[in-house]
Amino acid sequence: MPQLNPAPWFFIMLTSWLVFSLITQPKLLHFTSTNLPSNKMSMTTKTTPWTWPWI
């Protein structure tokens, strides 16, 4: 059965992971994010309790 022979598939998997980790990933990490996290304090709104009409 050909799928049990790991020789061609292991080489393809190893090559694709090397290309991803050595070439593609560093190029993607150089992009700057457009939504940088801010250190502003978030405003908390005061909530009023709901008054149930049947109580």
Structural class: mainly alpha
Number-wise, the strands total 0
The biggest sheet, with number of strands, parallel, antiparallel or mixed sense and barrel status, is:
none
Strand content: under 5%
Distance between the termini: 74 Å
Number of helices, where a helix is a run of at least 4 consecutive DSSP H or I residues? 1
Task: Tell me the helix content.
Answer: 40-55%
Describe the model.
Belongs to the ATPase protein 8 family. This is ATP synthase complex subunit 8. InterPro entries: ATP8_metazoa, ATPase_protein_8. Pfam families: ATP-synt_8 (PF00895). With 55 residues, the chain is mainly alpha-helical. 44% of the residues lie in helices and 0% in strands. It contains one helix and no strands. The chain is elongated.
Based on the model shown, name its key terms.
single chain, 55 residues, mainly alpha, 0% strand, elongated, proton transmembrane transporter activity, ATPase_protein_8
